[in-house]
Amino acid sequence: MKKSIIQKIQQSLTRWYRENSLDLPWRKTDDPYQVWVSEVMLQQTRIETVIPYYNRFMEKFPDVEKLAGSDIQQVLKRWEGLGYYARARNLHKAAQVICEKFQGRLPDTREELLTLPGIGGYISAAIASISFHIPAAVVDGNVKRVLARLFMDATPINATGEKNQFETYAVKLLDPDQPGDFNQAIMELGQRICKPGKPVCSDCPVQEFCMVFQADKVGQYPVRVVKKSIPHKKMNYAIVFQGEKCLLLRRPAEGLLGDLWEFPGYEQDRQTDQPEKQLADKIRRMTGIRISVKEKIGTAAHAYTHFKVTADIYLCFYKSGEIRLDGPTEHQWILPEEIRQFPCHKLIHKIFPMLDRLVNQTETF
Q: Which residues does the annotation mark as catalytic?
């Protein structure tokens, strides 16, 4: 692509962005902390979902020092429901590093930004370009889709190893004089105009330069590798009562849904015609206590990004023993109404109505 064409793309895209960009709370400032939080939240999450979470998060943690000095449970509670909880844990860890090593200010070079937990190539480029006006090109899913169509490149955008190809295009197109605006422009173009299924080519500011549009092949791009079907997991959860209180467990910090709270539960590794006995055995190995299983009270289901879960929920009662955890890192016996004070993942939220019904059925106890 000729340099003159690239300059026209830069001008057209930046002009379109300045005239049509969305009014978003994190765009009212170039403060690197606010840009950082917004970009972390926007990873694999829709803008309209992020806005209320961003506003609540910034209200609670208005600066790096406040975030670094807060307990991880407070951070997870504000993140609750947004998913991909490793993002929140890494934000918290990185804030502590920033306070310890960088005097509470985000570093202003990509090299130093990349040393922080959870900050990779994309987020470092976003912060560097938007807050520090460093010419660093961003490459996310929206940008790759725009580039695949603009350059009519059949490289699958979701294939391993495709990143360097699209980074080359992104660097070539980047406006070095206005890197922040250009990066936000090409990302917003992918979000609002150059959409996956039905791109709105009639509203595209760079339509005349788009190779797939000129070739009438928009529907054939971008190319994607067909992924395997999403696995479906079967879980069992126990709401275990001891008197008026029920048992809550905290997951290990590392790994899926780390540091979040849930009822004692496990993934079924084998079918059984005695699910109550299996449940009691699993809970005893996990917690050290013996329980009696009264009845199944319902089923909850949730679809995560890489798998689906269906869980059977059982009402149980403590019989004997002392808590000795194998797997979970902490336990609490709580009153049912206290559970909403703890950060829990979405599947557990879907069990809350069952817990509420149990409390209202006084004969249960």
A: 39
